[in-house]
Amino acid sequence: MEALFPSFQTIRYKSGLIDLQIPQIMGILNATPDSFFSASRVSVIDDCLALASQMVEEGASILDIGGHSTRPDAQAVSAQEEQDRVLPVVEALRKAFPKMCLSVDTYRLSVAQAAIQAGADWFNDVGGGQMDEGIFEWVAENQVPYILTHSVGAFSQVHQVPNYQYVVEDVWLDMAKKIKALRSLGAKDVILDPGFGFSKSLDQNYQLMAQLHQFTRLGLPLLVGISRKSMIQKVLGTKAEQSLNGTTVLHTVALQQGAHILRVHDVNEARQVIQLVKKLQENGLPNLS
């Protein structure tokens, strides 16, 4: 089929371009007290800068800052509290890393607007444009690079599982519809995230991973966020702290299936996966995308 968006090699940010001809790494920084992996929490600015420095040194090209946990049973916080958590981090990171690509992880338009004003570059929307009003219009009007994540319903429903007929096809069609809407409004820099862990059962997450290459047909860069998630923990009988090995396995599968960006807690290990998969592909490993 014809791709819904033109072919791409780069995605913009304020200080330059992200080259997607080689897979990129997005490091996770959670300005929250309750995100599921404690090592990613950075409520103190000095801790945030230290973790960010380590991630940049190890090979991250994007830093993703969130102020609202999306783990199962997470309680919603007000938009003001979310901004109070996120904006000082964005401002400190922009000052410390003036050329770094910064992403804000939120489902609220007001938080995204404030973070972009404070120095962030990308809007990483776990709500897929449906948890707040006017997101697609604002993204297109302001040409803000946008990560379109698949989920269903309001924030309070994000861990409920809809009655899919066939999860891969249903998610694909839902994303295709939203991509067309974004394109009709004039949005250009859009990244696709199938939303592992959101609005899917355990088996449905693995069905999506097994067929991840299908989403490259939409003609968008593909971001995968599975780092230390419960889809790994439940299969292996581990907690987040013991789920790095499982994360590495799924990162390997995702890269073979055409992933362009890995959203991770562990940058060095993700960089090593990229290096090894690249070497394998240079020596005949099939690329499924």
What is the total tally of β strands? Answer: 10
Which radius of gyration do the C-alpha atoms yield? 17 Å
Helix and strand run: EEEHEHEHEHEHEHEHHEH
Shape: globular
Percent of sequence in beta strands: 5-15%
Distance between the termini: 13 Å
Mean of pLDDT: 91
What's the helix count? 9
Description:
It is built from 9 helices and 10 strands. It has an 8-stranded parallel β-sheet with strand order 8-7-6-5-4-3-10-9, covered by helices on one side. It has a two-stranded antiparallel sheet with strand order 1-2. The chain is globular and about 45 Å long. 46% of the residues are buried. The longest helix is centred in the middle third of the chain and has 19 residues, at 167-185. With 289 residues, it is an alpha/beta fold. 39% of the residues lie in helices and 15% in strands. The chain starts with 9 loop residues before the first strand and ends in a 7-residue tail after the last helix.
Provide tags for this entry.
289 residues
Could you write a compact summary of the structure shown?
This protein is α/β, with parallel strands linked by helices. The chain has helices spanning 45-58, 79-96, 109-118, 135-142, 167-185, 202-210, 230-236, 244-256, 267-282; strands spanning 10-13, 16-19, 24-30, 62-66, 101-105, 122-125, 146-149, 190-193, 223-224, 261-264. 39% of the residues lie in helices and 15% in strands.
